[in-house]
Amino acid sequence: MDPSEPRVVRTPSGDFDLRLPKGERDILRALPGQLRDLLTTDDPALERLFPPAYPDDPALNQEYEEMVRAELTASHLTSIDVMEATIDASRLDEEHLVAWMGAINDLRLVLGTKLDVTEEMYEEGMPDGDPRMPSFVLFTYLGWLEEQVVEALATELNGGEPGA
Fold this sequence. Notes:
By secondary structure, the chain is mainly alpha-helical. It has one domain. It has helices at about 20-40, 60-85, 95-115, 120-125, 135-155; strands at about 10, 15-20, 90. The mean pLDDT is about 90.
C-alpha cells in the first residue's frame, strides 16, 4: 500500500473504510493490551492521561482523583476494548472510529511521556543509533494515524472535504 494513501476514509454511507495494511494492523494489535496493563499501575507515564487538577494542593488533588479516576479509567478501557474488537475490521461506524481515536491518542500520549518527547525531537529528529528510535518512529506513526482519523471524521458527507 502506498504510504501516501489515506488509511481512514469516509464512505458515501457515512461510515469509514479502514485501509490499514497487515503490517500496521499487526503493530496496532499489540498496543491496546499493553496500555490496558499499564492502566493498572501507577506508572508516571500515565500522568498525561490523568493530569493533576490541583498540582499545588496534594490533598485537594487526591480528593479529585478519588472522584474521577475510576470513570476516566473506564473511558480509556472502553476505547481500548473497541480497538481490540475491531482491529481486523475493514469498515467502522463513527462511534467505533471515535473510540479508535481515543485509544490512539492515549497510546501516543503515554509513549510520548515515556520518550520525553520535546519540540527539538520533532525538528531535529533523534541521533543515529539512539535506542529510543523504534519507539519514536511508533510515536510518529501514531500521530500520523490520529491525524488520518481526525481528517476522516471532519470530512462531511455532502462535499467530501473536511469541514465542507
